[in-house]
Design goal:
Low-confidence stretches: 267-272
Largest sheet: 5 strands, mixed
Number of strands: 5
CATH superfamily of the largest domain: Transposase IS200-like
Protein name: Transposase
Strand order of the largest sheet: 2-3-1-4-5
CATH topology of the largest domain: Alpha-Beta Plaits
Shape: globular
Number of domains: 2
Organism: Oceanisphaera arctica
Radius of gyration: 21 Å
GO molecular function: DNA binding; transposase activity
Mean pLDDT: 86
CATH class of the largest domain: Alpha Beta
GO biological process, one term: DNA transposition
Helix content: 40-55%
Strand content: 5-15%
InterPro entries: Transposase_17 (IPR002686), Transposase_17_sf (IPR036515)
Structural class: alpha+beta
Order of helices and strands: HEHEEHHHHHEHHHHHHHEH
Distance between the termini: 27 Å
Number of helices: 15
Length: 330
């Protein structure tokens, strides 16, 4: 049974979400159409540029992304507290980057409202905008509509560019976040596009490695690259560091991606379990189940990602007998 978006996306329960959106009618988001010879690689930059713009408006952070030929993946962090802390001036300043302000709000901002009723109405509109700045549905709407309009204009056609709004999965815990990010960063490898995880320039892992090399090299001048969206940093100890970030170390994550990438290139997964990264043990994840979850077309099934205990608690909270999601622990 289809569930309402308000139930699938609830930042009060978890701020992390995995979003997937696919094209229709053989539409291309990236790559080359073998039938016509048309190259669509430039459209990837459309997505990255729009994500970068939306980061200056919404209080939604980007953890990971993958732009594929006919779909894309996002792992996002919805920061409701940041949105609620914004004053009216900041909210209006952000909102006007995407939309034209109504006259009522323009008059309120410049202080020319004629009555208290006008002021209260304007305040109500601004309060609604503040809530939308942390609304995943509005974020995805502003991303997908923008890309669809540009693609239809280029293709000289009308109609749908995306299959639907978007598919979302609630990431219930740190283990689910680790699993989902690994799945997203390994998409080109699993699709056979590249032979090494770091070889793909279409995922957030490549961007993180580029930034790491640039920060580590003090002698050579940084390479000029196209603008990219900001990624939520890895923070090993959030309680001590006090920064907003992904709750494990970058080095541990890279070791995990490398291990999973090697496992996917082996026919028998059991032969490398002696080299299981310690991050799996700390997260309480079962190696076999983890490898199964991040196989092609496995993790994107269902509406939640997390430990079995977290899935049971989520189901009880929503008065459901069970919830569907990948099995990543015993």
């Amino acid at each position: 049974m289809t569930r309402p978006r308000s139930e699938l996306v609830s930042p009060d329960e978890t701020p992390y979400y995995h979003c997937i959106c696919r094209c229709v009618r053989r539409a291309y988001l990236f790559g080359e159409d073998q039938l016509t010879g048309q190259n669509y690689n430039h459209r990837k930059q459309w997505v990255l540029d729009r994500l970068r713009q939306l980061q200056s408006v919404f209080t939604i952070d980007l953890c990971a992304y993958a732009v594929m030929a006919n779909h894309y993946h996002l792992v996002v962090h919805v920061d409701t507290q940041e949105a609620m802390a914004l004053d009216e001036t900041a909210v209006v300043s952000r909102w006007r980057k995407l939309f034209r302000l109504p006259v009522l709000v323009e008059r309120y901002v410049v202080g020319t409202s004629d009555s208290d009723a006008e002021q209260e109405a304007a305040k109500g509109i601004i309060a609604q905008w503040r809530e939308r700045l942390a609304d995943l549905s509005w974020y995805m709407r502003c991303l997908n509509e923008h890309i669809a309009r540009k693609a239809n204009l280029e293709d000289e056609c009308t109609g749908r560019f995306w299959e639907g709004r978007f598919h979302s999965q609630a990431i219930l815990d740190d283990a689910g976040l680790l699993t989902c990010m690994t799945y997203v960063d390994l998409n080109p490898l699993r699709a056979g596009i590249v032979k090494l995880p770091e070889a793909s320039a279409d995922v957030s892992l490549h961007q993180r490695l580029q930034q790491y090399k640039a920060n580590s090299s003090s002698t050579s001048a940084p390479e000029k690259t196209a603008p990219q969206p900001n990624l939520l940093p890895f923070v090993r100890d959030i309680k001590e560091d006090k920064r907003k970030g992904i709750p494990f170390a970058l080095g541990d994550y890279l070791a995990m991606v490398d291990w999973v990438g090697r496992a996917h290139r082996e026919e028998q997964q059991g032969c490398i379990h002696s080299d299981v990264p310690p991050l799996l043990d700390r997260m309480g994840l079962d190696a076999d189940k983890f490898l199964t979850a991040v196989k092609p077309h496995q993790l994107s099934h269902g509406t939640v990602i997390g430990h079995t205990s977290a899935r049971i608690a989520y189901a009880q909270l929503h008065h459901r007998r069970c919830v569907i999601g990948p099995v990543i622990s015993t």
